Amino acid sequence: MHSGPGVSGQPLPVDVADHDGWLALAVRRENTPSMWQADWARAIYDSRPGPYAGLAFDLRHLHHPCSSFFSGSLWLHQAYGLEGNRIALQNAGERVRAVIEVLHVHDFFVFSR
Predict the structure, then answer these.
(1) What percent helix, strand, coil does the chain show, rounded to 5?
(2) Which of 40, 41, 48, 113 is 20 to 30 Å from 2 at the Cα level?
(3) Could you say which DSSP state residue 81 is in?
(4) How far is residue 30 CA from its own chain's centroid?
(5) Are 43 and 76 in contact (CB under 8 A)?
(6) Is 61 helix (H, G, I), strand (E, B) or coil?
(7) Is there a cis peptide before residue 65, judged by omega within 30 degrees of 0?
(8) The pTM is what?
(9) Within a 10 A sphere around the Cβ of 12, how many other Cβ atoms?
(10) Is 88 helix (H, G, I), strand (E, B) or coil?
(11) Do the Cβ atoms of 109 and 96 come closer than 8 Å?
(12) Residue 80: which of 26, 28, 41, 35 has the closest Cα?
């Protein structure tokens, strides 16, 4: 698992692992708004260029979703060339689901347990 610093030196807000051809990202318990800097996704891509069949996020510790989470996850989706595949969101809370609806990005995500 990789959870080292991002491009700006901030710790990443996620732990990263390869799992059966997918990139698995688990939001860290101690994630803070400052950890979701704009370059968190780029730091992951630079350290794990793929290819991957898909992206999966475990969101059990994402209680206050921010725009940087969504923009970064969509950036990774595009960077890995995953058009046609949705981003799997595991353990997504009601706030995450509500923000996805408000942002009208539900076509990019699928909820799973």
Answers:
(1) 35, 25, 40
(2) 113
(3) T
(4) 15
(5) no
(6) coil
(7) no
(8) 0.87
(9) 24
(10) strand
(11) no
(12) 41
Per the listing, tokens 């350290």 go with 47
Among the listed residues 43, 72, 68, the one whose alpha carbon sits nearest the alpha carbon of residue 55: 72
C-alpha span between 97 and 92 (Å, rounded):
7
Residue of 40, 33, 31, 57 whose CA lies nearest to 5: 40
What would the two tokens of residue 83 be? 């058009």
How far is C-alpha 12 from the geometric centre of its chain's CA atoms?
A: 11
Residue-wise pLDDT tens digits, 29-54 = 988 888 888 689 999 999 999 999 99
Handedness of CA 68, 69, 73, 79 (dihedral sign): positive
How confident is the model over 74-103, as pLDDT tens digits?
999 999 999 889 999 999 999 999 999 999
